[in-house]
Amino acid sequence: NYIYNHINTTVPTIIDWGFGEGKLIKRFRKIFKTVIGVEIDDDMIERLNWRIQHREEYKDIICIDYKRLDQVEKLENIVKENGPVVIVLSEVIEHLESIQKARQFLQHIIKTYSPEQVLITTPNREFNKYLGIPDGELRHEDHKFEMTMDELVKMLNMISTFQNNYAFSISSIGDMVNDTAMWFGVNIAKV
User: Cβ–Cβ contacts within 10 Å for residue 35, how many?
Assistant: First the structure.
């Protein structure tokens, strides 16, 4: 719900970066003129391409394999042709190698695609104790890190310094225990 409650629907194009199972992407088709799914996982790419070919609710979605240079160039051309974009990174950044790599990735996509808005959801590491997860462990084996509020704010401040025409806000999403949210919702928007 965080994504749908905060998304800028006046923009014609949305990029669902790291679309995974594709749960969000088919709903975006009802809202945006151009819907692009970007992924690096071969199985997810194959599944989305099959759905695009065989299921009406996925028709006209564009699937980009970000490991292929020709596909990266295709993405850049689509964004240039279709104007302003919103980028969604739902449960993506924690799969990158480190917080530093996540910051570099966010700086890269902001510099390259100049989105009107970037929406991010990511786990709050401080909530893990309420899930019974031992200190120092992560929620999923494929997560490389999970941030605290302080770490998230520090990373976002570094991005804002790098891209001074963007501002960010952080929301608490999901279950709450003792004023600690299960997830963070981040809205980075042009100012």
Answer: 23
Residues 6+ apart with CB under 8 A from 29: 35, 57, 58, 59, 60, 61
Within 10 angstroms of residue 80's Cβ, the number of other Cβ atoms is 9
For tokens 């501002």, the residue is 167
Residue 100 has pLDDT above 90, yes or no: yes
Residue 188 contacts residue 122 (beta carbons within 8 Å): no
CA separation for the pair 73, 155 (Å, rounded): 28
Phi-psi region of 55 (alpha: psi -120 to 50; beta: other; left: phi over 0): beta
Distance CA 106, CA 155 (A): 10
How far from chain centre, in Å, is Cα 165?
A: 20
pTM: 0.94
